[in-house]
Every structure is written in C-alpha cells, then in structure tokens.
Queue: 2 jobs
Job 1
Amino acid sequence: MPLTPEEPQIHESAQGPRVTPAASRTAQTPRPVPGPRPAAVPRPGRPGPSPAAASRAGGASRPAPPAPPAQRAPQATPGPVPAAPTAPSVSAAVPQIQLIPASAEGALDAAEEAVDLLLDTGRAPGDILVLTTGDPHPWAAHELSFGEAAYWALHDAGDDVFYADAAQVERAAGRPVVVFAANGGPAEANAAALPTALTRAGALLIVCGDPQQINSVLGTGV
C-alpha cells in the first residue's frame, strides 16, 4: 500500500533496542537471612530487653531482676541549736546578804519579823535556819527541854523553821535562807560565827544587828 505524504514513514532502524520490563529494573541487594538478634545494650534510665527478646538472642539465661530504685538519703532534720555556755552567775555561788539594822535588844524581834515576811512571800518553813548569838529563841529553849537528841531530830527532819545557837553553827546543815540575829554574846564569838553562817546560806543571809560591826566582820558595804 503506497504511503501518503501526510503519514511519514517510520523506518525500522530508527527504533532503539527493545528493553524488556525485567531488564529495566535495577537489581536489588539481597536481604540477609534473619538470624538471632544480639541483645541491645540498655540505655541509662531505660529497662533492659524483655525475656522474650533475650530468648530470641540465642537462649541466654534469665535476665537478672532489675535493681531497686535508688532511695533518697534521709535529710537531717534541723534540731534545736544548743545555747552557748554562759559563765556561772556570781549570785549562784555567793548568797546575797541583807542587813537589818537592830540593837542587841531588838535583833531577835527583827529576826522574827524577817521570818514572817519570808513565809508570807512563799518560802517553805524548812528553807529557813535562824541563828542567835545571845539568849536562845523561845522555841529552841522549849525543844531542848526534851533532850538534845529530840531537838536535833527536828533539825534533820527539815520540815520547819529551825532555831539554833550561833555557837553550834558548825553542826547545823545549810539551808537556802539563814537569819543571823546578833542579840548579844561576846563580840569575838559573833565575829567567828558570822562567816560560818554565810557558808550555810544557799541563797540569802539576813543579818539583824549593828551594821558597823557586821560590815567589819564580813568586809562588805551592805
């Protein structure tokens, strides 16, 4: 059949080589054969492989149990700050001295008023020791009539005001308050008994007598 001018002739040599679909595909790298997967190294803070993954990794032994979570160290609770040591008070070691000016005749009455005031302000009777330098207190004279043993037994009981001769101050035990009545007697004996009375007073020594004589013995300006 003759070709018309409108239909150009396609020569066989103009066609390129025919490529089959299979030849046009790029060859792929063959996939590896699935095998046992190595156990992955656990990352910090993440759990390790599960038991199933460990069994696939070649029948490894059972994984060790996970370590318990780290416990927070208990914080030390602030305690009370200990107070700085202070120097001992002078008044705690040396008793206070109170002077009541009185004559030898009025010293015993002044001592009685001091005892009444101490009891009225809350002092316990057993806290008070009264010493006399002259005539004994009427209570002491009465109790001594029953004998020395009964008299000093009342002293040892320590539940009431005790009256004693200043000459026996060495035998008397110390009490928080000592009332010293200089109601007579030799001046030398009074001067010897007064310093000992001071050592028997735990907190307070009340002296009823002549201020000049008392100051000269104790060396104080009370």
Note: The mean pLDDT is 74.
Job 2
Amino acid sequence: MTVTWEELGWERLAAGVGRCRLPGWDCTAGLVVGEGTALLIDAGSSLAEGARVRTQAQELAGHRVTHLALTHPHFDHVFGAAAFAGTEVYGAVGMDAVFEARHAREELRADAVGNGLDADVAEEAVDALTPPRHHVSGEWTLDLGGGRQVLLANVGPGHTAHDLVVLVPGTPEVVFCGDLVEESGEPQAGPDAVPSHWPAALDRLLDLGGEDALYVPGHGAVVDAGFVRRQRDELAARFGVSP
C-alpha cells in the first residue's frame, strides 16, 4: 500500500516534492523524488532523528535516499547526516572545514547542548560527522532522472559563511532556503553569520526562484517572494546594509 505525504506528517508542495517540520527546533527537512533517486535537504538534529527522516523519506519515495544536500553547518540541520551513509552528500564549499576542524566541531557540540540537545546525543553526532563529498562553489545542476533536475546554488555568505539553497523547477517552483529565510521567528545571526552580505544572498535567492515560487524556510511555514523581500529589507535595516 502506498503511503501518502500527509499520513507521515509531511507537507506536499508539488509533484514529488515536500517537506516536514521536525520537532524541537521546527527545522525543515525537504524531499525531492526522482526516478530511482531521492534528494533529501537537511538531516535533522541527531542520528536518531536523521534515521527517522530517512525511513519516512524512503517510504514516500518508494526507494532509498540517494542524495543529501546540507543547507548550512548548524547542528539542527546536519547532526543527522551520518544516518545517510551511502548517499552523495553536497554542501557549500568550505563546509568541510567546519566538519573537520577540532575547534569548529567543539563549537557545534557546545551550540547544540546550549540549545537543549542531550550532551551524549550531541557527542555521538559530532563524532560521526563526515565532510560533504561534493563542494558547491557556484551552481550545480543535479540530475535525478525521469526528467527531474534540481539546482544547488551557493548564494551566501549570509546566515553562515556556507549557505546552500535548492531550487526545484516545476509548477510551482520550490526553493529550499535553509536559514537564510525564517518564518517562525526573527532570522538568527550567530557568531558565524555574515550580516553585511545577507541581504545580497536573499537577492540572489529571489532571482533564482522568481515571483511565483514557493520559498521553504529553514524554520516555519512556507512563504512567498513578498515575504522573502520584506525579510531582506528588514535584515538590511537591522544590520545597516545599504540597498
């Protein structure tokens, strides 16, 4: 029996495209189904959560997850990545340094624990982290078969120094924004943010998606281009960035 997106608590956005809002930090995980392939966008906040997401995604796709795109190197988006062993993993160029450097890994662990993740769970996830195999420096077209292609675009820096977005062409077009866009609260600018470049990153994101796309934030409900543009202007005002 075929399971539906809704039965698993996922939101269907277009044919073969959807997302779920994970508990805890309301973090988005996205899914794009191809022909014998499946791309997951972000992996959750722990190995256990990543395993649950992978199981659900494979139920929806009808086959294994073959590709994983990580939108940026924050714990709630990457700590589940090791549950996707055997997949082709993509990240913005430079993300590998965050995963490999001892001080950066310790900062990831401390951030997770400081935000309420169990210390042992965080330690397990950090120990299992491996760098993405594929490093996206500009745009990368990923062929998922059956006429389905997606575009991985390094539009940052902004929320971090390593921001990747995923554009899924179709009717409607769907853009997975990572935390460059947040709907459920004010965008978070931590010590690794690059505020002076964040509005420009959103300009590039809007150029990719256009006026009629669905924009899927890293946290919160799906939004439209108008919301992204308003958030861009608010960030520019907040950080004193000239138009």
Note: The longest strand covers residues 174-182.
